[in-house]
Amino acid sequence: MQSTAHPFVKWAGGKTQLLPEIRKHYPHRIKKYCEPFVGGGAVLFDVLQKCRPEKVLVNDVNEELIKTYLQIKTDCNLLIEQLSELQQDYKSQSLEKNKILFYEKRLRYNELKINRNDAENLEKAALFIFLNKTCFNGLYRVNKRGEFNVPFNNAKNPLICDEENLRACSELLQNVQMKTGDYSDCKNFIDSETFVYLDPPYRPLTQTSAFTSYSENNFSDKEQLELGKFITEISSKGAKVLASNSDPKNTNKEDNFFDDLYSNFEIERITASRMINSNAKKRGAISELLISNIASVF
């Protein structure tokens, strides 16, 4: 296996760049690991490689994302075959034809997704990765009907089939339990031996920043408050907890929403880069929150 496996898709809010800060909050030993909002899995793959937990549960509300994880875990060779064919097709033709190919594949993916055709999970997983590599900014966004609606990104030579990384991810995922659903469904897995990392949909800093939807469900302040109760509950069970979220004070110094919600936890403000914005000039340094009941071990 290669020395480091990394996320097989680009994901809004991905934590690769923040791993050095997040690692400071890893417990000295991780016997059980749970990630209720796994997303692109940057922290998952880091924990799997560095800490080798005995039991792992990951969850996400995005059903197609979890099905893609499962496909990588169970049928990586077949997935690589399909992605290789897509990559060959893409590289063999003009950008104009690739734009047509993209929208054909997006239509096919949405047909499979909306019809819930589980017999075609391999094709859906290949299309999921293909679209991620060739759509604008690697976003995953759906409309109210649940249809993927991100446009083409005009990439000339994207790496659609990263065979080495897919095999590395597959090897690491063999002992990982996967679920699709609400984060609270992880409650029974979590106990005093569990390290839990939570990376929920961030609270928008402005109304215009809330343009992405990774599923048909919204995550408003009401859901943030409910998540706060969940985090307090699992912390009271003895679980070691680390959560990420946006820092409202980036835009309003008087906004104490998270400072009040997590007043019994350690709150650290770290610097991150805003990587996804329709205006490139607005991508830059920004403060984010790490909320924890674990003292920094570094």
Automatic annotation (TrEMBL):
Highest taxon in the source lineage: Bacteria
Recorded coiled-coil stretches: none
Single GO term (MF): sequence-specific DNA binding
UniProt cross-references to PROSITE patterns, sorted A to Z: N6_MTASE
Xref: SUPFAM superfamilies: S-adenosyl-L-methionine-dependent methyltransferases
Alphabetic keyword roster: Methyltransferase, S-adenosyl-L-methionine, Transferase
Any one biological process term the GO annotation gives: methylation
Enzyme class name: transferase
UniProt-listed Pfam families: MethyltransfD12
Family in the record: Belongs to the N(4)/N(6)-methyltransferase family.
Protein name: Site-specific DNA-methyltransferase (adenine-specific)
Organism: Treponema succinifaciens (strain ATCC 33096 / DSM 2489 / 6091)
